[in-house]
Amino acid sequence: KWCRYRFWLCSRRKKYDISISGGTIEADGATGIGIASDSAPDSVSIKISGGDVTANGKGYTGIGIANCNYGTNLDVEISDGTVKATGGEGGAGIGGGNCSEAKSIDIDITGGDITAIGGEGAAAIGGSLRENPEYVEPAENPVVKVKIDGSSKTLKIAAKVKGNGKGAIGD
Fold first, then answer.
1. Distance CA 45, CA 57 (A)
2. Considering only 15-19, 153-157, 166-170, which range has the smallest mean pLDDT?
């Protein structure tokens, strides 16, 4: 599979599974926790069930996927822990990063103390800015689903967007 806007081969044979169940995690990068490459895997699964997690996406998303991952399915599950996720310009705190080109973004939050800050043009939890002037045309819109259910555990969410952001939760 070739990336839509860039002309190099993207591998479609990979699946990434990331699981955090405790401890103190501080992740700073283009994407804090997830992928920010042109690898375009079939799926990325990120599960957080405990711990003190801080994820800062310097250029993309705090927790999620970004950058020419055309057709990738993202699944994020947070069931417990203290999670602070901050997206860079155009990237969601939790979800898509600037021009992620994901096929779907599914976010399920059932517990924990969550703080999500979306970068300018993105949601705090959900979708990202998909129009990047570097590309010829905007990326296709992914199916974004955000489910929040605090009925079985203690759940606290603070969702904020920077500047000219979209909705705090959604797309």
1. 17
2. 166-170
Under DSSP, is residue 57 helix (H, G, I), strand (E, B) or coil?
strand
**How far apart, in Å, are the Cα atoms of 116 and each of 5, 8, 47, 163?**
29, 33, 16, 15
Least confident of 89-93, 106-110, 136-140: 136-140
Distance CA 99, CA 127 (A): 10
The model's pTM is: 0.83
Per-residue CA distances from 128 to 28, 89, 133, 152, 159 (Å): 18, 9, 14, 29, 14
Q: From the CA atom positions of the chain, what is the Rg in Å?
A: 14
Rounded to 5 degrees, φ, ψ at 45 are -120, 125
Q: Is there a contact between 141 and 96 (Cβ–Cβ < 8 Å)?
A: no
